[in-house]
Design goal:
The chain is an alpha/beta fold. Helix content is 46%, strand content 21%. It has two helices and three strands, in the order βαβαβ. The chain has helices at 10-28, 44-56, and strands spanning 2-4, 35-40, 61-66. The longest helix is centred in the N-terminal third of the chain and has 19 residues, at 10-28. It is globular and about 35 Å long. The two termini are 20 Å apart.
Length: 70
């Protein structure tokens, strides 16, 4: 799953959390599930949210900084 986020409000944060919760049974059932969390280099808030998600989910995460999404 590739995730590229430049802005997150409480509603979209809840939606993303629900998406990850739905992926857990697939991961635990033996399916290969990996989250690539892309964030802009200077966006510490989105980076921290990705770190928090990776620490609370059994799904493996890659936190990938990028120069820009444009």
């Amino acid at each position: 799953v590739n995730v590229k986020i430049s802005y997150l409000n409480s509603g979209s944060h809840s939606y993303i959390s629900e998406l990850f919760k739905k992926l857990v049974p697939l991961h635990e059932g033996g399916k290969e599930v990996l989250v690539n969390w892309y964030f802009e280099n200077d966006d510490r808030e989105i980076e921290e949210i990705g770190k928090a998600c990776s620490e609370t989910s059994p799904i493996p995460f890659n936190l990938i900084p990028m120069e820009s999404f444009s």
